[in-house]
Amino acid sequence: MPSIITLYPLDKKLVLPKPQEEAPREKVALLSESGRLISTRKRDGWGSASATTGLRKHPVALYTRGGNEITENFPAVVEELRSLALPKDILVTSEIFWTSGSGVREDLGALSGLAQASPENARKTQEKTGSARLMLFTPLIIKGKDVSSLPYHKRAEQVAEWLDKRDHELLSRMEHLTEDFAALQKRVVKESWEGLVLYDADAGTAFETNGRHEKPPRPDGCWKWKPLFEADFVATKFEPGTGKNTGLAGKIYIAQIDSRTGQLFPCGEVPLHKKEHKILFANKAIYPIVVEVAYEIRTPKGALRTSSVLRERSPLDKKIEECILPEKFWKK
């Protein structure tokens, strides 16, 4: 693997690392006991890469994980990044996110709109609603050299050193949470966080230059943890499957009852994974039917993300009128 890659424009073959999907509980416990566990909050934003190029016209640049440049869409963030006056040829893994007016919860939909809008429209929107923010994780390249194999804690310390040199409002480093893992799991649920990202402080990471973005490197020593929530919904219809699922149901559409009106409030769709569910929900005669669904996160509009059907509920067990939409999702 070459030690230097093109940072402007960013080499599209660069594949950034991602956390492993499941945190090994025994290993996490041992790391916590030994003081080697770094626990951070998982934000609900876009994974990104932040670069310093040394170029006069483009001294810093911001990219999506896929290598698409979004520098001009986030001018306030980029200006703060430029003000750090970092050496050239630095590439840092990062995450860009946008919070609502309360600042309590990230809004991935709003961020996606900003990233996909024209630079002019993105700028005007942020002037009215507030700028997106950028969290810097750890560097992969410093002064053109690959530093990804260095321990997480050393690379995180370098980011802290850079940020401590200037006042900034929109930039931040990884927040190191001090509670033990059990306490943090409860905090995630209580404060409606998306989850945690856990690091072995002494582990390195890796990146690839093979262009296989569908298969990013997931080095040992970095894991994510998300809670699973469960709730009951009314399945209203299905969408037929395709390919090998022809003749079966591919997904179902779900809703809950708005108690103010008694009407069904659409809550998006749920993909079907189990063969028995694909057969069951392909029968139009069963609708509407109550289903129990597991999910990782619920968007501000009430839709689910990373969801799956646990089971159908018998009318004797759960009635349709009992599937009530939580008040926080009521349209104002």
TrEMBL record:
Task: Supply the source organism for this entry.
Answer: Candidatus Lloydbacteria bacterium RIFCSPHIGHO2_02_FULL_54_17
Q: Which domain of life is it from?
A: Bacteria
GO terms of biological process kind: DNA recombination; DNA repair
Residue stretches in coiled coil? none
ATP-dependent DNA ligase family profile domain mapped to chain residues: 40-202
Output this protein's name.
ATP-dependent DNA ligase family profile domain-containing protein
Q: Show the GO MF annotations.
A: ATP binding; DNA ligase (ATP) activity
* Matches recorded under Pfam families: DNA_ligase_A_M
